[in-house]
Amino acid sequence: MQVFKFGGAALKDASNIQNVGQIIQAHQASIRFIVISALGKTTNALEVIINKYVNQDNSYQEAIDNLFQEHIHIIEGLFSVKNQAFILPKILQFQKEIHSFFNLNKEANYTFIYDQIVPYGELLSSSIVSAYLDSIGISNKWIDARDMIATDNNYTEAKVDFTKSEPLIHQFMDASTINITQGFIARNENGYSTTLGREGSDYTAAVISYCINASKMLIWKDVPAVLNADPRLFNDTIAIPELSYREAIEMTFYGAQVIHPKTIKPLQNKNIPLLVKSFIDKNAIGTTIGGSKINEHIEYPPIIVYKTDQVLLSISVKDFSFIAEENLSHIFRIFSTNGLRIHMTHSGAISFSACVENKPERIKSLLKDLAHNYDVKYNESLELLTIRHYTAEKIEALTLNKNILLTHKTRTTIQLLMRSE
User: Fold this and answer.
1) Cβ neighbours of residue 329 closer than 8 Å, sequence gap 6 or more
2) Residue ranges in the chain whose pLDDT is less than 70
3) Helix pair angle (60-78, 120-135), 10° resolution
């Protein structure tokens, strides 16, 4: 009983969806759940639409229609005219719901608005995949993940309530067929949509794997295995055939785009192995993470995580008193409320510095909230380099011609916040 997860890159166009269909066809006897992300760059497009709406730019309505037209174009490439009639009404209903929300919404909170709109990316893609599988003879049941995954009210970074979710998953799951659902999205006790954090579809698959006691979870990506660095940025990457749960958690904590940071814990709790496989090269061995056969003492190459467009915020109390635990607790709550994950910190006597990704709308809200009690200065356009299992040679090579603003170093990990000279 396995859980498969397909990301946006695997679903970006009609031919890719057909390829996914072939993978599912080859494994369908062992699959219980398939978790689907939004097609291609749909989440980015929905974020643009939300920002236009929040900024009172009425072109958001045209942007909605353009996004749906892109999905309809994919449908036309997948289905006969006759079969299009079975999926188009559902797609057009989603389009109507988005327009209706924007027309009726009175809530100003950005994270709330975000979580009511962004889930439509996954609802669209999973509906198309489910209908396509039906058209090629693969029986399946489409389930709205929001009916199964229960969370708290922390919009954009909602916490899953496993006690409530597990019976719901078993209630909606059909044990006699493949169940198709969405990653990343959920619902709170008030009936509103929530999301589990950007790229959270991996985590959804892990939650489901935990709740149904899956024998294995598989993530299908556009790389042959987990690599020691992003192949789009580095041309000398190394495939890692095995990872311990611990190493995978460390990598994702520092921002490696392998899997969502929360994915490992539910799998580790039940010793469920995670396989990262290539949807391009289906014969590639991939990477096995965890499970009873993994050696915890694997020798790893230097593992590199490189992030651009970082912001360093320096926060100090207005009365020149010490930054104490009470201040830090308050500051961290403000970051959390605004949906900003801190990648690196530094504490001084009267100031606290935090490095975050540059998310303009959220940082604007953060600065407003901090201004009541703190003075804030910040540097933009920074780069954050993290190296696990570093060597002196690797540090020197990757910091050449860089002005280093901040360094954190332990026995196994070094982080350097820097900018180009």
Assistant:
1) none
2) 292-296
3) 10
Q: Which tokens go with 236?
A: 């000398």
Q: What is the pLDDT of residue 198?
A: 81
Report residue 19: phi and psi, to 5°: -65, -40
pTM listed for this prediction: 0.86
Name the phi and psi angles at 223, rounded to 5: -125, 155
At the top level of CATH, which class does the domain 303-420 belong to?
alpha beta
Give pLDDT tens digits for 4-49: 999 999 999 999 999 999 999 999 999 999 999 999 899 999 999 9
Contacts 24+ apart (CB under 8 A), 195-199: 195/114, 195/115, 195/118, 195/119, 195/155, 195/156, 195/157, 195/158, 196/149, 196/151, 196/157, 196/158, 196/160, 196/260, 196/262, 197/156, 197/157, 197/260, 197/261, 197/262, 198/43, 199/257, 199/260
- Three-state DSSP state, 332: helix
Please give the structure tokens belonging to residue 12.
């970006």
Backbone angles phi, psi at 53, to 5 degrees: -60, -50
For domain 2-221, the CATH class is: alpha beta
pLDDT tens for residues 168-184?
Answer: 999 999 999 999 999 99
What are the residue ranges spanned by the domains of the chain? 2-221, 303-420
Mapped to the 3 state alphabet, what secondary structure does 242-301 carry?
EECHHHHHHHHHCCCCCCCCCCHHHHHHCCCCEEEEECCCCCCCCEEECCCCCCCCCCCC
The DSSP secondary-structure symbol of 184 reads S
Give the count of beta carbons closer than 10 Å to the beta carbon of residue 215.
13
Contact 385, 349 (CB under 8 A): no
Q: Show Cβ contacts of residue 167 under 8 Å, excluding neighbours closer than 6 positions.
A: none
